[in-house]
Amino acid sequence: MPSVPAALRFDAVDLDRVSTPVLRQVAFTVEVGERWAVLGPNGSGKTTLLELASGYLHPTRGTVEVLGERLGRTDVRALRPRVGLVSSSVAKMLQPGLTGTEVVMSAAHGALEPWWHRYDDRDRARARALLETAGFGHTAERPFGVLSEGERQQVLLARTLMAEPDLLLLDEPAAGLDLGGREKLVARLASLAADPGAPPIVLVTHHVEEIPGGFDHALLLRAGEVVAAGPIAEALRAETLSATFGLRLALDRSDGRWSCRAV
Ligand SMILES: Nc1ncnc2c1ncn2[C@@H]1O[C@H](COP(=O)(O)OP(=O)(O)OP(=O)(O)O)[C@@H](O)[C@H]1O
């Protein structure tokens, strides 16, 4: 039987920007079925790592394999639609007048606006079902531009899931959300994490409190280098987190959720 390729594999990856190293010797592997949290201070290279994982950047040295395809040896135009990316840069490209349903539906054909393609009733029903499942059915008919930050993030997540990606990448989805918005998003991600049909997930976040229950792996980055990577109980510890942020930190876990403070 052929073995299933890893969802994401970085091997000795360096990424230089204007000859400045941004990532150095980064190595980790996300297997199918795994859910990873990526943590690190501002500027440590988290977004850059997602840009490689989504095929928008190529490594300067080393190898990146996405869904079994090696960057530099594959047509990224065919690869990118298989990778779902939730990031603020996508939100900025959407027309504020589109309804929640239209924003979600537009993903079915990889477009930013729904009228560039024909949609059928099944597309519309599926888009609405994704919003309903998240508990955000009330956004279906509202213009995207008037939605709250929390509602927008849920619509963007539903939009990304609409395209049925084989790998799901999230770049700080809880940034700017209030406590309620954050908890609803974390709950939605926890239910995705528990869904065996959901794709592998890589979530970039600044806060351990935003790691949903069921996330089983962590990658800690400091100044472009891996401090720890692997199963979450080993990679995410007070020592590794302290080394990552250059602070003495205490880390707690309760009911599958994490919390952290300086000591
Ligand atoms: N286009 C670019 N040209 C030059 N340097 C860049 C470019 N994009 C990012 N960088 C630099 O690369 C480093 C890593 O940036 P990146 O956005 O990946 O960090 P991050 O960990 O996501 O940060 P944050 O938590 O603040 O979002 C930073 O020092 C940044 O200034």
Automatic annotation (TrEMBL):
Sorted UniProt keywords: ATP-binding, Nucleotide-binding
GO function terms (MF aspect): ATP binding
Gene3D superfamilies associated with the record: P-loop containing nucleotide triphosphate hydrolases (3.40.50.300)
InterPro entries, A to Z: AAA+_ATPase (IPR003593), ABC_transporter-like_ATP-bd (IPR003439), P-loop_NTPase (IPR027417)
Keyword Amino-acid biosynthesis carried by entry: no
Highest taxon, organism lineage: Bacteria
Short name of one Pfam family: ABC_tran
The keyword Nucleotide-binding is assigned to this record: yes
SUPFAM superfamilies cross-referenced by the UniProt entry: P-loop containing nucleoside triphosphate hydrolases
ABC transporter domain location: 8-248
PROSITE patterns hit by this protein: ABC_TRANSPORTER_2
Record's protein name: ATP-binding cassette domain-containing protein
Organism: Acidiferrimicrobium australe
Lineage: Bacteria, Bacillati, Actinomycetota, Acidimicrobiia, Acidimicrobiales
